[in-house]
Amino acid sequence: MAYPAFPSTPLLDDFNRADGALGANYSAGAYAAASRIVSNRAVPVAGGAWSSRYWNPSTFKDCEAWVDLAVLPAGFKVELYLRAIAGANLNQYTCYITSGAVNIDKTIADVSTNIATASVSFAAGDKFGIRCLGNTLSGYRYIANAGGWDQTPVVSGTDTGSILTTATGNIAFALTDGGTGTVAIDNFGGGAASLEPPPHAALRVMN
């Protein structure tokens, strides 16, 4: 199967607006506080408690989400959610990075199970993303000093038998650093992903 290059989805939000709430394109999730904008970046609530927001204009099945990593202080955690099903409990796929590690989890009715983990280090200026096609999830990294996305997933795994394998849901991000509130992302992208790369443009024959 030939997959398109990651990411195949557009920028959704560059956060370049006044400090404060993210706005009408975002909804609250279960439990977490509200992420907010400070200095044209998305950050957690003051104090760095777990803060999330869900992109609400559309829901997706096969999909991607990605962010630019602006500030990564000690104790940071940056999460991306796919197929997040609205409700009182958490039901979603999560790919998250911490210092030196990246993980993919599935959460059903607030109970999380790890699908895959890898030892990977991210730095400020890098980018981080996840793609879900069918029941396969793959995490990707853009290395700032290499100038491009690594098209070999840094982590990947397969879900079997859960409600999420056929679900349609929201994409989202969450941030925490457990203290300073300085972890920050810039440029949130994502949306519907395809199993196949776009077709090549038809060749025009010149007589």
What does this structure look like?
The chain has one domain: Exo-inulinase, domain 1 (Jelly Rolls). Helix content is 0%, strand content 49%. It contains no helices and 17 strands. The protein has strands spanning 11-13, 20-21, 26-27, 33-34, 36-38, 41-43, 51-55, 63-71, 77-84, 92-98, 101-108, 111-118, 127-133, 136-143, 148-158, 170-176, 184-192. Strands 3, 4, 7, 9, 10, 11, 12 and 16 form an eight-stranded mixed beta sheet that branches. Strands 1-17-8-13-14-15 form a six-stranded antiparallel beta sheet, with no helix packed on it. The chain has a three-stranded antiparallel beta sheet with strand order 2-5-6, with no helix packed on it. A hairpin with a 2-residue loop joins strand 10 (92-98) and strand 11 (101-108).
How is this structure best summarized?
The chain is mainly β and 207 residues long. It has a single domain (14-190), classed as Exo-inulinase, domain 1 (Jelly Rolls, Sandwich).
Number of strands: 17
Largest sheet, described in full? 8 strands, mixed
Shape: globular
Instruction: Give the distance, in angstroms, between the N- and C-terminal Cα atoms.
Output: 36 Å
What's the quaternary structure here? Answer: single chain
**CATH homology group:** Exo-inulinase, domain 1
**Percentage of residues in strands:** over 45%
Give the name of the CATH architecture.
Sandwich
Q: What structural class results from the helix and strand content? A: mainly beta
Put simply, the count of helices is: 0
